[in-house]
Amino acid sequence: MRITMLSFAMLTAVGCDYSGDFLFAGAIDGVRGVDHLDTLTPATIESDADIDGAAIFGEIGPTGTAAKGGVTFTFRGTGDHVCVFVDPEAVFWNQSVSTRTPTPQYAYPDNVFDDGDLDLYAGFATYYNGTPATEESGGEIGDFRVRYQDGLQEEVSIALSECVISSSIDDSGAHAGRGSPEYCTLRNTQPGVSYLVLMETWSTPLDDDRLGYGLLLAHGTCADMLNAVTASNDECVLRGETIDPSTGEAYPNSYEFEDHFCSRAPMGDYCEAERAAQRGNPNYCENQHCFCGDPADTPSGGSF
Amino acid sequence: MTRIALISLALTAISGCAYTDDIETTNLRGKVVIPREAATRTMFAADGTTEEVTDSRLIGPVYLGLFPSIQEGLVEYPHPEIGPIFQTGVPGDAYPYGGTTIGDFRFACVEFLACKVSSGRFTDFDDLLGWFNTRLQIEVNDASGAPIETGEYIRQTCYEMLNYTTDDEIRLTARDENEDGIIDEKDLDFQENADGDFEADFTIWQQEFFKDEETGQGFSLWGWMDSPSEDSFRFSTCDQNQGQRETEYAADFRGGRQFTNLLNQPSQYIGGGDWTVSGDDGEGNVGWHVYESTDDVVVIRLDNMVEN
Question: Is the ipTM value over 0.90, yes or no?
Answer without folding.
Answer: no
